[in-house]
User: Fold this.
Amino acid sequence: MKKPVKIIHDCDPGHDDAVAILMAAVHPSIELKAVTVVAGNQTIEKTAVNALNVCSASGRCKNVPVSAGMSRPIVRRQVTAGDIHGVSGLDGPSFGLPDIELDPRHAVDLMIEILLSSDGDITVVPTGPLTNVAMALRREPRIAEKIERIVLMGGAYQLGNVTPSAEFNMYADPEAAHIVFTCGRPIVMMGLDVTRKARATPDVIARVKSLGNPQAVLFAEMMEFFAKTQREIYGWDGPPLHDPTTMAWLIDPGCVETKPMRVEIELRGELAYGRTCCDFFGLENSPDSRGGAMSGIQSVLDRPKGANALVAVDIDAARFWDIVYETFAMYGK
Ligand code: RIB
Ligand code: CA
Assistant:
């Protein structure tokens, strides 16, 4: 049995974040060291309550600190996604009172504390805007060498979902994304290109719900709301379950095909602000291939050299849903 991967899950619950939390809390391949919360899908007050409710519903987080972090992006004006996740950020299910409380430490401080005291064997799993992770890297640069890997949901090398160019997590805090993508640590990027292939169709929802345990029923209740807004806005036959692709990769990396690419965040574009510009064909692999004025303009920013991320380019959707089903089955029949 391989050793579990120690993770800090940084999230903005969020229906798909909630499923990712429930997977991380129960799967033996993952040791959930902390849940840190960031503003994103909704305000920090709402995402923090949602994280508490979901961690409590898992029944597996009594010793997992849950802490609230950054309440707004580093530079840009705040955006949220109430149109997708509802006023509460987790509309649909109703929760009882959580049996855990927020940790009093700020999420950035908690992240730094855990990383500095670790053996450098922590994977950071962001599934929301990267504000907390970026602020931790700026507050305490020494944590970079303590991060074994960053496995994040966000970005796309093809179409965006909040603008034609940009995906929500990156768009919500592009400057934070730039800090993370230039931090020098190994990154695995689960972008919309693959998460859109992992759609929770009615058959998928019914299969997990048939397990009958409270967490599986909660999954179905959340998906029923999530499906409605995604159908209204994008016409999907089932909501793409973005964030749990990170946990599925940790459980079975073979379910996702990745390709090394240089990924840079557009910070100056009017139309492409927040886009993950992915060098799919390796056109700019060597620094001297950056011609023209752009190299001068961009020179005030750190720019990665060569590939700085493994970008997901395909997913075995059947295998992904088996992983989700098998994980929820671990909560009992
Ligand atoms: O674009 C999808 C991402 O934005 C997901 O993480 C979802 O929860 C929202 O945060
Ligand atoms: Ca999210």
Observations:
- The longest strand covers residues 30-37.
- The chain has a mean pLDDT of 95.
- The pocket of calcium ion (ligand 2) is lined by residues 11-12, 14, 16-17, 40-41, 127-128, 243 (CB under 6 Å).
